[in-house]
């Protein structure tokens, strides 16, 4: 069966001579380029596939895969009222770097960040992650009345604080039982709120600065307006759930220092790589030969021991002071 990796392989986006030999029964065989090409040629030989070249079919695979990755990103940003063009696309996973620039282009994003441990970022992040334990319980309380004369009332105030405190005690006890010090534990409180007559609940974190009479309501209305583009009036605001997160903060990485650009490094190879306009001559770089301040202008391929990064046409990758890649995507 063909995989996205096969498409990247036959299009030169993965360079087999620099790819680890981890295949076969003994996990010591190189990647099979000819096998991938043969499988794609079988698609070309079909009636429908005969309309396209092998490269066009493989590139179509990548376009479908990229769009499948774009959709959940849109759901987390644009569908919730956020302007995706103001965000930076963070790339992780061994194959993430082969698609990041193309995905950023499709989403209209101008910046991509590839961590130096991007290929194993899940494991690296786990070593620095917060320790978290959550407690949650359902509710059927009114937080705010719709009646203007009672709008400033908080009918669940007394019971709410009691229930949140009880959940916090349980969450703290769990982390203490795991060996964490109580002094290192931070408590975050949430209310899962919705308008009466709707089934859309929004989990609202306790505002850091408790302004106004009903701060959770203010935060809920702001979120609701941003995500749905309107607000509802004349409805009671209900509490569906109480939730508490007990957090022991993990290690925070040191902020990256500015770096002075020092031009383009010496490539170790030059190969043909397939892009939207067809085959292009692309320089191949070894990340170990690159220093902070080095810039790579696409089309290019950067080889890491744990990943391969494709720098698309119109993209420029800058090595940061920490050895990460800060990629700028040209406006489309």
What does this structure look like?
The protein has 332 residues and is an alpha+beta fold. The protein has 7 helices and 13 strands. It has helices spanning 4-10, 33-44, 54-76, 100-107, 121-128, 157-177, 215-228, and strands at 89-91, 111-114, 131-144, 186-195, 202-205, 237-248, 269-275, 278-286, 295-297, 300-303, 308-311, 315-319, 325-329. It has a 5-stranded mixed sheet with strand order 1-2-13-12-9, with helices on one face. Strands 3-6-4-5 form a 4-stranded antiparallel sheet. A hairpin with a 4-residue loop joins β10 and β11. The mean pLDDT is 92.
Provide the descriptors you would attach to this structure in a database record:
332 residues, alpha+beta, 5-stranded mixed β-sheet, 4-stranded antiparallel β-sheet, 13 strands, 28% helix
Brief synopsis:
With 332 residues, the protein is an alpha+beta fold.
Number of strands: 13
| Radius of gyration, taken over Cα atoms and rounded to an integer in Å | 26 Å
What is the end-to-end distance? Answer: 35 Å
Strand content: 25-35%
Count of DSSP H/I helices: 7
Mean pLDDT: 92
State the assembly state of the protein chains.
single chain
Shape field = elongated
| Low-confidence runs of at least 5 consecutive residues | none
Q: Report the order of strands and helices.
A: HHHEHEHEHEEHEEEEEEEE
Strand arrangement within the widest β-sheet reads 1-2-13-12-9
**Helical amount:** 25-40%
Structural class by sheet pairing and helices: alpha+beta
**Main sheet overview:** 5 strands, mixed
């Amino acid at each position: 069966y063909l995989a996205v990796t096969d498409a990247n392989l036959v299009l030169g986006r993965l360079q087999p001579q620099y790819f680890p030999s981890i295949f076969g029964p003994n996990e010591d065989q190189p990647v099979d380029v000819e096998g991938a090409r043969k499988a794609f040629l079988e698609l070309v030989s079909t009636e429908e596939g005969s309309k396209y070249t092998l490269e066009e079919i493989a590139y179509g695979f990548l376009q479908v895969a990229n769009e499948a990755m774009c959709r959940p990103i849109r759901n987390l940003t644009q569908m919730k009222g956020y302007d995706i063009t103001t965000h930076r696309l963070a790339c992780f996973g061994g194959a993430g770097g082969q698609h990041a620039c193309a995905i950023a282009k499709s989403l209209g994003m101008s910046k991509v960040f590839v961590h130096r441990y991007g290929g194993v970022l899940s494991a690296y992040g786990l070593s620095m992650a917060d320790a978290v334990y959550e407690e949650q319980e359902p509710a059927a309380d009114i937080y705010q009345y719709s009646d203007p004369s009672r709008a400033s009332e908080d009918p669940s105030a007394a019971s709410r604080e009691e229930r949140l405190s009880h959940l916090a005690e349980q969450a703290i006890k769990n982390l203490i039982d795991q060996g964490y010090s109580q002094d290192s534990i931070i408590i975050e409180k949430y209310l899962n709120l919705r308008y009466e007559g709707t089934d859309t609940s929004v989990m609202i974190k306790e505002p850091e600065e408790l302004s106004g009479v009903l701060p959770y309501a203010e935060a809920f209305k702001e979120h609701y307006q941003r995500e749905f583009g309107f607000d509802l009036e004349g409805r009671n605001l209900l509490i569906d759930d109480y939730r508490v997160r007990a957090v022991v903060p993990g290690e925070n990485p040191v902020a990256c220092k500015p770096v002075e650009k020092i031009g383009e490094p010496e490539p170790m190879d030059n190969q043909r790589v397939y892009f939207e306009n067809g085959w292009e001559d692309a320089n191949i770089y070894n990340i170990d030969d690159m220093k902070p301040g080095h810039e790579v202008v696409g089309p290019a391929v950067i080889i890491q021991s744990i990943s391969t990064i494709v720098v698309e046409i119109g993209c420029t990758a800058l090595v940061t002071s920490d050895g990460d890649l800060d990629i700028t995507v040209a406006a489309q």
